[in-house]
Amino acid sequence: MAPYRSVHAFTVRFFPHSSVSLRWVVAAFALLAALCWASPAWAVDSAVFASGAGTEADPYLIENASQIAAFRDAVNAGDDYDGKYVAPGADVDLEGAEWTPIGAGTRKSSGIAEGSTPFAGTFDGAGHTVSGLKITSTQGADYAIGLFGILDGATVKNLTVADAKIAVPQSELAGILCGMLANDSTVSGVNVYGSVSGKAGVGGIAGRMTLSGAIENCENSASVTAAGGVGNAGGIVGAAYYTTPTGRMAITGCRNSGSISGTDCIGGIAGLSATFVSNCENSGAIAGTSYSVGGIVGEQKNYGAVSGCTNSGAVSTSNASAYGIGGIVGWARYDGAAPAYATSAPITVTGCANSASVQGGSCAGGIVGTFYNAGTVSGNANTAASITSSSFAGGIVGNLQNADISSLPSTVPEGILVENNVSATPLNAITAPLKGPYAYNNTPSDFTVRDNGSAWVAQAGATRYATLAGAFATAPDHSTIKLVSSVSDQPTLSVSDGRELTLDLAGFNLFFATDGSLSLQDGALTVTGQGDVATAEGADGKPEPLATVSGTGSLALKGGSYNQDVAPYVADSYAEFVPADAHATAPFSVVPVSTAKHNAQAVVHDGGKTVYYGDAGAARTAAAAAPGATVEELKAPSTPSGNEGGEGNPSDGQTGTTNDGQPSGDANANAGDKTDGSTAADDQTDGNGTKGADKDDASKATAKPSTSSAASGTHTYRSSSTAYRGVPQTGDAATDALLAVGALAVVSGGAAALARARMKRARAK
């Protein structure tokens, strides 16, 4: 009642001659005005937590906006909660009131300025949501803006921040979750929605990450804008830069779907990066007005790597002279790296995929726009519909260039390798005065572009290869290279220096170019699987030799079909076989000896080699063309039957028989009813491994008519020791059921009639 007494005293003083009623009316209006201009009710609650002991098992619980504000005030007063656990026990609505960050403070260079009060504990959102976050003012450009200000060795996880509205034009340190993440802080499982804008250093999750830390499995759906002249805007972090020789920063498994815009260093995941970005995805539109614009990273500078990332959001800049516009990384370079990153390694971009268009600037690439001095671009795939630049463009890298090598740390060797990448963007869809299907190479003597292709053709383990020659050259020893598509015009494939490889054709074809073949100099190759292998036709009209084997080299064929006699290379327990329907491209197949013997009608012996033939006439023709060759006929042509595919179990001489050898007119007799009244399983396979239903379709054309009761088109009646003998059993469930119901109706009707007759006789008596 104290507020009411104060207001009433006010009216008595200033309205002494008014009636009591008038004074209370004035008091009511005064009280209403006080309520309208007061701070939100939750801001005056002095209780910090609803409950809890601050341990992992029993964290401090926050139930409402009043308590999260009290928690904020305690941190900003100097309690960093190091070693303590805090968690919301319910969703919290901040109601759009102006918010002061938890852990207030400022950045100084790459560190935390003196006088800051960062949060250092663990905040586990436990799947809850904080909504209504609003920030429109700052204490300075380097003042950290977000739900949290500065995280210093802290952990924040499993939290959603929804309906955020952060608009601080002066800020260079703004994120929806936190302004600054430093010193091994970790953010994981955080999702943010809304919008955030500032001058520079703006991110959906964090404005900046410095020194060391990790952001894992987070997602940004908010729009992010760096409206000032400095830039550095990213869907996850605006800038992840500045580290130490022992420090490491990483962004892993994160996704962005929000639109990202600004001047320079604009990226779907990170704007400016010296961190390790892996397995991240971007689908939001990425738009800059200057240099370094990328689907994943705007600029990768001096250190770190980008791997396993995908981009499907359009990448563009409005500045025609801007360097570095790329589907994955805009610009990779070294600038001031020698003193800051003295022990760094070359920047790498590996295993990434871009499917979005890349437009604008002076250097545009499907994977990297511009790459300077040193690094590796490998295992990436670009399928952009178009790539456009005012000067340089390429399907993988737009421009490879050298800069002042004084920027390179001594531990980084100069030279860029662009190897084993795929670009499906046609050259006529790449628009630039200076362009290449894979890269525009300004200095071929310093940079290497090799073994790139338009599609993946082979795989060894988890590694895909754009060319088969590249797979043979770099696949690990004792590995199996598996074709994933047919290849043609192949150069010579070599295995040497004691290496051993296996080539699995896997149903695909391998056709060599002129003078192309297998070269096995002190190396071993085994070929398995099915597929055609053919060398080019020589000057004499005959196929060029399949292989050159020297030193301790060896070739063992355990599969494939070839356009030439390969008997010298057939492996033990395998044989060369020419099917009756062999095609001209590759008639000589390599199959197991047992299969060859089963399917052959004749064998040609020519010196020390043996070739099996599925057609005796073809065998005789082949033997006649080879002086000294002999023909051994194995069996006469068999009579066509329901198992005429040439594979599987040999025929027993009966055509269309049941399992007990009795004739049947049904080609599916093996899968039908047995004579003992039992039923064969529906999925029982025949000798070819084909289920009964499939065999029926394949063999109807050769099935013989029959006069037996099992003739096609009629129901076969059968007797059974357990069947009800008053009703015929048709073998068809529906028909049997109808007959049974009919019989029951007849019996029931008769019983009813008999009962009525007995009642009449009883009345008559």
From TrEMBL:
Please give the start and end residues of each transmembrane region: 737-755
Q: Does the keyword Methyltransferase apply?
A: no
Signal peptide range equals 1-43
Q: Which UniProt keywords apply?
A: Membrane, Signal, Transmembrane, Transmembrane helix
- Region Disordered, residue ranges: 628-729
Name the residue ranges with Polar residues bias. 651-667, 677-688, 713-723
Compositional bias annotation for Low complexity: 700-712
Q: What is this protein called?
A: Gram-positive cocci surface proteins LPxTG domain-containing protein
